[in-house]
Specification:
Blueprint lengths: L2 E8 L3 E2 L9 H16 L9 E4 L11 H8 L8 E4 L5 H14 L5 E9 L18 H6 L7 H11 L4 H20 L10 E2 L5 E2 L11 H4 L21 E11 H6 L6 E10 L9 H12 L8 E4 L5 H10 L12 H4 L3 H19 L3 E8 L3 E9 L4
Helix pairs in contact: 1-2, 3-12, 9-10
Organism: Rhodococcus sacchari
Protein name: Thiolase family protein
Length: 384
């Protein structure tokens, strides 16, 4: 049984303590869930499961936020939900699980997506009760080194010979591309505006810093190493946001009169060194291309999450993707990185970009905690 993506939608990405910070994560999730079925024109009762990514599953994001979001949205109590954590790739993994479940014949209609409201549930909340997630055997295996993503980004910059100017130039370009995309209205169709508790309507991504230059970024202090390259301006922004995709079997899509947008051509996941942590998108991409039988030249757009600028830059050096095909509408440095929702946000943007430009294949990959990465190749259903 073949699975297809028939609808995709996202909220704007709010900056830390910005326009979306007053919205409960389950309520923000409910916004995209309802927008998804409204745009598809289906009864939510036909959804057989909601697979939802969320990283900090504590406080307002605890107790299976997927199920809470379904009920907050007013959907029938018969619709279940499950929350998953593959760190930053959680909602990309949610899509891959959803696709696999439909193709296995378990579901006909399923929603995949995710959420993170980092203003309300900060990074580290899930381990705030004390103790360490790394037991003695883990620490012995890695010579007592406790994994740190920022240090990993510094290690990547050093290994691939990326200077402070290099990474700052990449970061300034991310803002420039995101601003141009926003000005051209390229995000408008994929975004559902959010009305906050005080009645404010948030309809645009908030993190874009117009006029960012290498010279301005040069004035920022590095965070992880005094003589390093990583600072707030070349790292992904702490953000709030949610996104969702509607997946159906081809038979169900025909039954409900829906035109498929895209299908997952290939989906893989892999692991790499958890200390440098952020290099797994490289082998994940190589694995996806090998499994798909496609080459770099066959891919019309690449989305590599900008957790830190050295991540996509090192990836590009190894994979050889051209500049104009890599994160063409900017990335998380400009748009933000609401952890559990980022995979679905990027997938949504990539689908709209592919359809707008007649691109047959797009590849998305992102680094994940523990030295992991998903890679997903999408194919337009109507591409020739």
């Amino acid at each position: 049984m073949s699975a297809v993506i028939v609808q995709a939608v996202r909220t704007p990405v709010g900056k830390r303590n910005g326009g979306l910070s007053g919205v409960h994560p389950a309520q923000l999730s409910a916004v995209v869930l309802n927008a998804l079925v409204e745009r598809a024109g289906i009864d939510p009762a036909v959804v057989e499961d909601v697979i939802w990514g969320c990283v900090q599953q504590a406080g307002e994001q605890a107790v299976d936020i997927a199920r809470t979001a379904v009920l907050t949205a007013g959907w029938p109590e018969t619709v279940p939900g499950v929350t998953i954590d593959r760190q930053c790739g959680s909602s990309q993994q949610a899509l891959n699980f959803a696709i696999a479940s439909v193709e296995a014949g378990h579901y006909d209609v399923v929603v995949a997506g995710g959420v993170e409201v980092m203003s309300r549930v900060p990074m580290g909340t899930s381990v705030a009760v004390g103790g360490s997630p790394y037991p003695e055997a883990f620490m012995e295996r890695y010579d007592g080194v406790r994994p740190n993503q920022g240090i990993g980004a510094e290690m990547i910059a050093e290994k691939w010979g990326l200077s402070r100017t290099d990474v700052d130039a990449f970061s300034a370009r991310s803002h420039e591309r995101a601003a141009a995309a926003q000005d051209a209205g390229l995000f408008a169709d994929q975004i559902v505006p959010v009305t906050t508790p005080d009645g404010t309507v948030v309809s645009q991504d908030e993190g874009i810093r117009r006029g960012t230059t290498v010279e301005k970024l040069a004035g920022l202090k590095t965070v992880f190493k005094e003589d390093g390259v990583i600072h707030a301006g070349n790292s992904s922004q702490i953000s709030d946001g949610s996104a969702a995709l509607l997946i159906m079997s081809e038979e169900a899509a025909a039954k409900y009169g829906l035109t498929p947008l895209a299908r997952v051509h290939t989906a893989v996941v892999t692991g790499a060194d958890p200390v440098i942590m952020l290099t797994a998108p490289i082998p994940a991409t190589e694995k996806a291309l090998a499994k798909s039988g496609l080459s770099v030249d066959d891919i019309g757009v690449f989305e590599v999450n900008e957790a830190f600028a050295p991540v996509p830059m090192a990836w590009q050096k190894e994979i050889g993707a051209p500049d104009d095909k890599l994160n063409p509408n900017g990335g998380a440095i400009a748009l933000g990185h609401p952890l559990g929702g980022s995979g679905a946000r990027i997938l949504t943007d990539m689908i709209f970009h592919m359809r707008r430009n007649g691109i047959r294949y797009g590849l998305q990959t992102m680094c994940e905690g523990g030295g992991q990465a998903n890679a997903t190749i999408l194919e337009l259903v109507d591409a020739k």
